[in-house]
Amino acid sequence: MIGGVVAATMPGHAGAPSPDAYSHDAYGRMTADLVEAMGAEVVVGFSMGANVALEMAEKKLFVGPTVLLGISLSLPDES
Question: Phi and psi at residue 69, in whole multiples of 5°?
């Protein structure tokens, strides 16, 4: 992919079929598969997507540039 943008709807959101497991680990692995299939060079995540992007970076499922927007790192952040 050169110069393209992919916006993905997470499984279980916006009418998309539910995943087998609702966890950052499961979403990280699913998203890493998509990133690899699309040949993405940068991952940008917003809100829950930022937590998923962080999971991908932490587990080295994606090692390129990662942008985290609107991320909550603890329950008090949600208050």
Answer: -120, 135
